[in-house]
Amino acid sequence: MKFLCVECDEAMSLAETRGPDRGSMTVIFGCPVCGRQTAMLTNASETQVVRSLGVKIGGQAVSAEPMEGIRTGLAASSVGVSGPGAEGGASKCPFTGMVNEAFVRSDMPWTEGARQRMENIPASARGMVMQSVERYAEAEGLAEVTETVLDRARSGMGM
Amino acid sequence: MKTWHDIATDGGSDVAGQVAVQADRLAERLSDIRYIVAVMSGKGGVGKSTVAVNLAAALARNGARIGLVDGDINGPSLGRMTGVQATTPPQRTGGAVSPPETTLGVRVMSMALFLRDETTPVTWDAPSQSGGAAWRGLREAGALRELIADTAWGALDMLLVDLPPGSDRLPTLADVAPRIDAAVVVTIPSAVALDVVGRSVRMIQQHLDVSSLGLVENMASHACPHCGQADPLYPPGRTDRLARTLDVPVLARIPFDPVLGMAADEGHSYVYEHPDRPAACAFTELADQLKLLLDAS
Ligand SMILES: Nc1ncnc2c1ncn2[C@@H]1O[C@H](COP(=O)(O)OP(=O)(O)O)[C@@H](O)[C@H]1O
Ligand SMILES: [Mg+2]
Ligand SMILES: [Zn+2]
Predict the structure, then answer these.
(1) DSSP for B232-263?
(2) Which end of chain A has fewer surrounding CB within 10 Å, N or C?
(3) Alpha carbon B187 to chain centroid, angstroms
(4) Would you tell me which residues 78-117 of chain B have a C-beta closer than 8 angstroms to some C-beta of chain A?
(5) pLDDT tens per residue, chain A (159 residues)?
(6) In B172-224, which ranges are E strands?
(7) Which residues of B touch A80 (CB under 8 A)?
(8) Which of B114, B120, B136 has its CB closest to that of A70?
């Protein structure tokens, strides 16, 4: 899929991706000439088709890990002890703002309040922040991410 | 106004580029593999996996370096049949996953190695499983591509791909593999199976670029456990008739042998442990015929 600024007859380029929000993604494109932006909103199954291709909206900065589609694609209930090719637990890619990344799975539950506060963080950084909060909570031996945990994580990690 | 073809990029996602990278990785991984051979059938339960496992063993016993991919993503059975399911989970070396090996040195890769236990279904992560018809096939094809491309096969004389039932499976393999050198099509001599197998072979001949094709007739006869005499289970000649109609050779005939079924269940190598039983000889014959077929093309 490509986007064209009709006025400028110019191909638009990717500006930002947000989500997933209950499976749907917001992908923003901008015209490099006039700056006009347009957002493509995918429904859950459209997002899923792109995920299933094993490609990432927003491009792939680093080449895929071996068996990445299997590892990141399988539902948590299906994954075996170590997962394919994982080096010491499920590996999580370092880049953000991409569909598969955005779906990075975690067993750690979040309270509604804590989740809401994540909405204030730009989508491109959200996945990474959530991961580090979960790592912090895990290290502290906590079973759930609450708003209190967020506050403590913030001071603990100097955020 | 510009159209799709006038615009070189897709605005930053480079989906086409990413797909090309996937294809490149596959081609690179397969460059050290002499032959890629699919074991298939339109029909289920006719012995595809049994043939794949024992053909691999027969080839390996003669010194060939063999890889075996379980192309049945949803119903993997090679982990159990080859005995590697019981071994430690596959380890990663560099950019690929090391395949476990059977006693005869056959390198095996299967979805079963990554699932929690024997009863765990393959469920893909999705906001909802309904509507999965639109994307499940993509996931399965992607998984097959990864099982082939992301495994550290090393140099191989042959990579065997055991496919699930369905005449649509070889086209899927053709989509993810750069080439298919031969297809071994397994059937039993029932009219029901032969109909379906006939359709799959025709489909390959009409639409796919697979240079070598051969049939394997499984369970046409039963070897008497006392005298060893082969006892037919179906009216004879049916498989040969289909082979003539399709103009493909019958590469081998595998008799029914309960010991073969037991070996599969226990993950033992039948060909290795019972080399003199008639079915084991038939697998050796199949290995020889397949080599002749490949060398001739
Ligand atoms: N020649 C044979 N003698 C005895 N058992 C067989 C033979 N061929 C297949 N089987 C058994 O039949 C069942 C189905 O075979 P399998 O190879 O799994 O079929 P497919 O892969 O076509 O679904 C298995 O339990 C297998 O052990
Ligand atoms: Mg099978
Ligand atoms: Zn514009």
Answers:
(1) ESS-TTHHHHHHHHHT--EEEEEEE-HHHHHH
(2) C
(3) 14
(4) 89-92, 95-97, 111, 113-117
(5) 788 999 999 999 888 888 788 888 888 899 999 999 999 898 888 888 877 877 666 555 455 678 888 888 888 777 765 444 333 333 222 222 344 444 555 667 888 888 888 877 766 567 667 777 887 787 788 888 898 888 887 776 554
(6) 182-187, 212-223
(7) 89, 113-117, 120
(8) B114
Q: Which two tokens stand for residue B145?
A: 């591509």
Q: Is the domain A1-53 a CATH 2.20.25 member?
A: yes
Contact with chain B for residue A127, Cβ under 8 A: no
Please, what's the b/e burial string for B138-153 (b: 16 or more CB within 10 A of its CB; e: otherwise)?
Answer: bbbbbbbbbbbbbbbb
Domain boundaries, chain A: 1-53, 63-159
CB neighbourhood size of A69 (10 A) = 27
Domain CATH for B25: 3.40.50.300
Which amino acid is residue A41, in one-letter code? Answer: L
C-alpha A122, offset from chain centre: 11
Domain-embedded: residue B32? yes
CA distance A123 to chain B (A): 17
Residue B5 lies in a domain: no
Is B175 near chain A, with CB under 8 Å?
no
Q: Which domain holds residue B277?
A: 14-125+132-296
Q: If you count them, how many residues does chain A have?
A: 159
The DSSP output letter for B128 is: -
**Which of A2, A53, A103 comes nearest B7 by C-beta?**
A2
| Interface-testing mutation among B3, B18, B24, B114, with chain A (most A C-beta atoms within 10 A) | B114
How many domains, in total, are found in chain B? 1
Cα-trace Rg, chain A = 18
User: From CA B12, how far away is CA B18, in angstroms rounded?
Assistant: 11
Ligand 1 pocket, B49 CB below 6 A? Answer: yes
